[in-house]
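Researcher: Good morning. I'm working through a list of sequences from a screen, and I'd like to move beyond sequence-only analysis. For each chain I'm collecting a predicted structure so we can compare shapes side by side. This is the next one on the list. No need for commentary yet; just the structure.
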Amino acid sequence: MSRRTKLAVVAGLLIVGCALWLFTRGDQAGKSTDRKPTAEPPKAASLSHQGQETSYQGLSDPRWPIFWAKREKDPSFEWKTPIEFYGKVVDQDGKPVSGVVVKMNWTDMSPNGTSEAERTTDGGGLFSIAGIRGKNFGVIGLEKDGYVPFAKSNPNSFEYAGFWEPSYHSPDKNNPVIFRLRRKGEAAALLRYGPTLFGAKPDGTPVMFDLATGRKSVGSGQVSVSVKKGARNADRQFDWEVTLEAIGGGAGLVESKDEFMFEAPESGYQQKWQFTQKAGSEGFQDEIQAKFFVKTSEGQFARIEVRILPEYSEMAAVDLASYFNPQPGSRNLEFDPAKVVKTP
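Model: Good morning. Structure tokens for this chain:
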């Protein structure tokens, strides 16, 4: 074998050796990565449990080694975590509600991946469950005749395995999780319309609505909406504003964030409400939604839900739903479909 051939063989062996070394390191790196958290939370994050803020320790948290040791031993251990849960159901005044059927589920190792159960609250509004295993526990229903749950504010998801999750839950029998129901009152006979989509010119021309008919009105009505929109910029954003106005002397609007708008307030009404946004604003919105109580010039009350789209088929649009009590002076806006006032 010539000297040149020997050098070529040696060089080839060196190249193969380097490739094998790099491949081995890559494989080891891949194995090491598999043991890192799949979704590490930021070290500056904080967790909130039953209103108490807790500083999060990031990867220095002593629970991480325990967590990864358990996963090393059993990759499915998270779905086998012991679960205990203690809850209490109260009404809007904080009084315990007995006889509430509480529906719950949790993710686990069952054939369906989820199991379900029901409990009924006792005389103190309390319920609990224990002796089950899973990862995430949820309260998915609260049912009792004459009551309606606070769907937006009631908690519904509780994590038992992932201690870094914001919904991580540590059960405490002496400090049950609170769930709220609202007692239904005597519903009023209301005129109910919508949501109905109406076109509007984006030049600030008011569109009037008749809450007694649920339709656009010409020259009369109880509420008007106007939308004014500027030209788009390079980011397809634009200046725009919305004005809602209660029509007539003594009429007014009150914006509401309440989940249940069952009774109009006695006071606090203003004739106009406005929303303004500039192109380039942080968190730019290309539509808005809002809810209002309405007092008419005739002393009647209503509640409306409005969605404004400043761009809609080369125009603007207003999507409006209304609950109108035609009885002057009655602030009752609790709705029952069986009591809807029928109009021609």
